Amino acid sequence: MQKNIFFPDVKPQWDGERDCVVFPALVDGKRVRCDITMEALGKMFRAPLNLNEEGFLRAYEENKSVIYDLARKKILAGEFNFKGEIMIRTDDAGAVHQFDDLPTEDPELRRRLQAVRAILADIAGEKLNSVSLSWEVVRTPDQGWFCQLIVKDSLSKSTVVTGFSSQELKDLNSLALRLQLIRLWGDLLELRTREQHKKVDELVGSLTEE
User: How far apart are CA 200 and CA 34, in angstroms?
Assistant: First the structure.
């Protein structure tokens, strides 16, 4: 069952007893506590473990779009602890699109590409786990960037692609950017449907021959 998940734009808190950053999620209107441990911040985002409280909060702020994406996946999977909370630990690092996987050393561009992925995750929900994502990034003559998002679907054995200019990535809250990602996901779902119809036709054909 699809859940309505929203992360309010509120200041995160540091929990010194658990050594973690605390942030809220609203799940179908109900407030849920989410934690990410300092070890997870260190492993996922190379935050030194000798940072002080402000340092870990800063690491969270710089990477919160990725953290929201991971928390969303755990919520959809029902991975709550006995208190009904979400805890992101080092074991969850494998589920994150790591910095090294992004083809750019520009920290601001990395943050924006991760934010685009988080928007797509919000659109696709848990179905995003069934596809693989990659980026191709090239410099433009005006010293900007052109970033191509490539989505490969193993179910339909198809690939859908869309691209963003530096200008388009400046406003991550724009309706145009979200609509572009909605169209991308819609194209992939249409290709899946076609592949499923093809398999059904082949099955019917083989039964008719018998």
Answer: 43
Tally Cβ neighbours within 10 Å of residue 206. Answer: 9
Q: Which two tokens stand for residue 100?
A: 């090294």
Specify the CATH class of 1-96 in words.
alpha beta
pLDDT in tens, 184-199: 999 999 998 988 888 7
For 120-165, the pLDDT digits (tens) are: 988 988 777 778 888 888 877 777 888 889 888 877 788 999 999 9
Q: Which two tokens stand for residue 80?
A: 């709550």
Output the six-digit token pair for 148: 């191509």
**What is d(CA 17, CA 21) in angstroms, rounded to the nearest whole number?**
11
Could you state, in order of their start, the residue ranges of all structural domains in the chain?
1-96, 97-210
Give me the phi and psi of 14, to 5 degrees please.
-100, 125
The C-alpha angle 167, 171, 175, rounded to 5 degrees, equals: 110
14 within 8 A of 35, measured Cβ to Cβ = no
Alpha-carbon distance 203 to 207, whole Å?
6
